[in-house]
Design brief:
Blueprint lengths: L5 H20 L18 H20 L2 E3 L15 H21 L2 H5 L1 E6 L2 E7 H26 L18
Parallel strand pairs: 1-2
Antiparallel strand pairs: 2-3
Helix pairs in contact: 1-3, 1-5, 2-3, 2-5
Amino acid sequence: MHTSSLQQNILAELDHELATTRKLLALVPYEQADYQPHPKSMKLGQLASHIVNLLAFKQLFVQHPSRDFLDPNGPKPGPSPTNHEELMARFEEYSASLRVALEQATDEELTHSFRLHRGEQTLLEYPKATAIRIMGLNHSIHHRGQLSVYLRLLDVPIPAMYGPSADEPNW
């Protein structure tokens, strides 16, 4: 029987999700970055940037005990990419730095608490590994699903993700 660590499990899941996210982001038609399927929806470029910036957010969970949204000195994403090349470069940079942070984290460190808060108001508090999965991976998967709908509405063929897609039926 093969045993693996908490860190190894998270890295395996991360690698799978990064590969899928990379495939979808590669298809974003940046010339349509202002596309918005509904007035309450993010624009295509904003959504793609948000998905990429969430990688830095996940790294925060690994390397820090908390994040206060009211702290003016807290980490913030860089300026939004202005083209597809910048989007993909940031994705690769943030993916690599997140992976390094996770590789350097021990299982014990991943059981330490992470608190996301706004001043005294706690928004969430979980062990780091749980925060990475819930507010990191699951959050990213949610927005990646939104992105796949945007792309479908723009007639961009959708790649297989967890099984065949209508555009790649023989996955």
